[in-house]
């Protein structure tokens, strides 16, 4: 079994290990002001930032996310004064952007918190112990974030459900992941073997999961894809139907956007578009609230990415040009 796939299969245990330590995370969360909050990171960490800020906005919080490289590229730092808390997310704890932030934005460290998987990160000394939250995913070696992305999301959700006052039933993610690991991907795999440039569409925080799927397909199996929010797709992009691409829809049930999904699905069917909806897998998600419902779909596409890589003669999760920790801007 490839290292990448073995790490895919380690995810249920990684979630369980993290939930066993959730009291430690909740104690740290008590120190985080949440009236005006900014989440930032790179790559998979940035997608986790988007996911969690969308959920918070859905509950009326002033929560925003920005890619850390973009934050650093702005000419002025003054806009950071508007935030009570800055949540820095870095699974490696060593990315070039994070190192640059702690060195050049030191005046904002006091109100910053770091979420990382690396207890030996070289920048930990810039923070107090109460500002550090560890995702406890265990060592991850392959390209394509699997258990570190999952545990980043779960760590953030542990915090956010406390702020919101709603139980996200995070323990049910373990069973959902196990079901997805046992799911037969052959029918979906054939779709991707015959369609080289899929288009993914979702709504709200589902888009962040699709962005992570996009990154996984790119890193692991070198398959390009496009991701759109449903309304964005209608604003001109729908013209792509003319060349008959595979369109994958990820709805969120029990959410107002589900009606938009149904309408778009109907319109695409009328156009005789080639579509696949992940709605048919919802029976595996019936124990999950809408805030976590899209997450286990990651497993399906991690397995697909692994199989596509093997089909192409590639080593799944082995980087050709990038490295696990990015050291260049």
Give a nutshell description of this structure.
Helices cover 43% and strands 13% of the residues.
Topology at a glance:
Layout: H1 3-9, H2 11-19, H3 22-29, E1 36-41, H4 44-58, E2 62-67, H5 68-73, E3 85-90, H6 96-104, E4 112-116, E5 132-134, H7 147-164, H8 172-181, H9 186-193, E6 199-202, H10 206-221, E7 226-229, H11 230-234, E8 246-250, H12 257-270, E9 274-277, H13 297-311
Parallel strand pairs: 1-2, 1-3, 3-4, 4-5, 6-7, 6-8, 8-9
Helix pairs in contact: 2-7, 2-8, 3-7, 4-7, 4-10, 10-13
Characterization of the model:
- The longest helix is centred in the middle third of the chain and has 18 residues, at 147-164.
- The radius of gyration is 19 Å and the shape is globular.
- β6 (199-202), α10 and β7 (226-229) form a beta-alpha-beta unit.
- The strands form two sheets. Strands 2-1-3-4-5 form a five-stranded parallel sheet. Strands 7-6-8-9 form a four-stranded parallel sheet, sandwiched between helices.
- It contains 13 helices and nine strands.
- It has two domains: 3-164, Rossmann fold; 172-311, Rossmann fold.
- The protein is an alpha/beta fold and 329 residues long.
- α2 (11-19) packs parallel to α7, α4 (44-58) packs parallel to α7 and α10 packs parallel to α13 (297-311).
């Amino acid at each position: 079994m490839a290292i990448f796939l073995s790490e895919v299969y380690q995810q249920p245990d990684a979630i369980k290990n993290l939930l066993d330590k959730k009291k430690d995370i909740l104690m740290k969360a008590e120190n985080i002001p949440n009236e005006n909050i900014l989440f930032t990171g790179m790559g998979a960490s940035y997608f986790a930032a988007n996911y969690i800020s969308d959920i918070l906005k859905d509950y009326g919080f002033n929560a925003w996310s920005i890619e850390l490289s973009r934050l650093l590229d702005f000419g002025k730092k003054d806009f950071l004064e508007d935030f009570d808390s800055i949540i820095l997310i870095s699974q490696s704890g060593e990315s070039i952007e994070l190192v640059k932030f702690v060195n050049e934005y030191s005046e904002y460290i006091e109100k910053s918190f770091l979420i990382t998987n690396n207890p030996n990160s070289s920048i930990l000394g810039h923070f107090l112990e109460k500002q550090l939250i560890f995702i406890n995913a265990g060592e991850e070696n392959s390209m394509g974030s699997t258990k570190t992305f999952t545990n980043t999301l779960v760590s953030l959700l542990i915090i956010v459900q406390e702020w919101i006052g709603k139980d996200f039933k995070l323990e049910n993610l373990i069973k959902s992941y196990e079901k997805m690991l046992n799911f037969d991907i052959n029918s979906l795999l054939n779709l991707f073997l015959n369609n080289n440039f899929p288009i993914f569409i979702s709504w709200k925080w589902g888009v962040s999961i699709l962005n992570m799927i996009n990154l996984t397909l790119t890193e692991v199996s070198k398959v390009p894809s496009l991701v759109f929010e449903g309304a964005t797709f209608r604003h001109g992009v729908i013209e792509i139907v003319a060349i008959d691409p595979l369109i994958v829809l990820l709805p969120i049930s029990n959410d107002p956007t589900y009606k938009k999904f149904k309408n778009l699905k109907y319109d695409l069917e009328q156009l005789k578009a080639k579509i696949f909806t992940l709605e048919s897998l919802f029976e595996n998600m019936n124990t999950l609230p809408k805030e976590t419902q899209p997450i286990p779909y990651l497993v399906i596409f991690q397995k697909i990415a692994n199989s596509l890589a093997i089909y192409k003669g590639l080593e799944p999760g082995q980087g050709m040009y990038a490295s696990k920790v990015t050291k260049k801007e």
